[in-house]
Amino acid sequence: MEKIVSLCRRRGFIFPSSEIYGGLSSCWDYGPLGVELKQNIKQAWWRAVVQERDDIVGLDASILMHPQTWTASGHLQGFVDPLVECKNCHLRWRSEDLTGNNCPSCGGELTEPRLFNLMFKTFMGPIEEAASVVYLRPETAQGIFVNFQNVVNTTRMRLPFGIAQIGKAFRNEITTGNFIFRTREFEQMEIEFFVKPGTDEEWFNYWVEERINWYVKLGIKKENLRLHKHTKEELAHYARVCYDIDYLFPMGWAELEGIANRGDFDLVQHASFSGKSLDYFDEETKEHIIPYIIEPSAGVDRSALAFLCDAYDEQLAEGEIRVILHLHPALAPIKVAVLPLSRREKLVAVAKQIYADLRQCWMVNYDDAQSIGRRYRRQDEIGTPFCVTVDFQSLEDEQVTIRDRETMNQIRLPIAELKSTLQAKLEGEPLFVLPPGGAIWKE
Length: 443
Ligand code: GAP
Prior knowledge:
The protein has 13 helices and 25 strands. By secondary structure, it is α+β, with helices and mostly antiparallel strands. β22 (399-404) and β23 form a beta hairpin. α2 (32-51) packs across α9.
């Protein structure tokens, strides 16, 4: 984990939040490369669950919701962790994280557990009184449930169908740590998939498989993923069945995503507390039913950490350690780097033109500092799939060299075919371009 944290810090993926003031516990800021990585993860998820499907639509609900939401959802009563405090050093711990009866830090005696609600409380409007209390949402899911009827009424969605949302969630976690694994402010990617009761088990199994495949398709090694079924004691108050997709993080196996069968709990609760009907008219059976909900709930930050850990590699090359991020091209923050072999005016003009052209399609770096070997290493370290080298020969033959991050193989091709070749390569096509005509060959 130290290596990942150090790389993230050094290369501008992730910084401690408000660092100039000494940082803020468990809050992190995503730098120029981190923001691209996170954006790409969200885009890949949205593409897989909304864009490429006709049974899921998107939503962007507000973070602040009517306070009754949290009574209905059970969060005000049930979203609690038992907390103990060390009588000696006053550090606080989650009871369930402790193995012994004493403080893990100083060995001191611990207090009896007391329940601590994890929701952040604030006030709406200028008066700080009980009537104006609102909460920062601890999950994005509730914004979907309260909009269920709005979506049914304004779209042609019919069961089974889902609503997907990406957004910030906040939890006043007692135990944080492990970098961006557990933080107090984080982003979730959640699907609430509404199904007819009786088909819920089938859909639950479908989503477990679908979500594992999503991670594998984006490069996570299968052997680093496993399923963990929640025991009765582990189940959240709303869930009938829940599986975690665990990832083998550097600190051990831990939850990456949760997939729950929430039954009709949420729609029944919100209908009861709001007094509004949240049932669904089934055209086939002419019956009013309350759909069951299957919920695949993933964390953006936790996914980013898993993708970084899985991609991190060190190789020995020419007596030096080569750090490389084997990020899937869809996730790589920078897709292509343009590297002129020298800073000579004529060469720079060609390289800058290529840079400007490629930027129309992707995030591209331009790097003319230090030796070409060092520049390749810099790009390997941030996971850039392809480097384009412009040399003096390019001025004569209008060709450039593409270097592949994974194989370090280089091919030369006409500048005119650069964009289409990169496009194909970034989409995973095993294309090969042979000079001088630039005919495209499949490997
Ligand atoms: N709506 C269901 C729900 O929120 P959860 O298992 O509490 O379920 C879902 O959270 C996912 O959100 C987790 O698998 C994790 O990826 C992410 N997550 C939850 N708490 C987090 C935290 N404190 N920091 C970072 N990610 C978190």
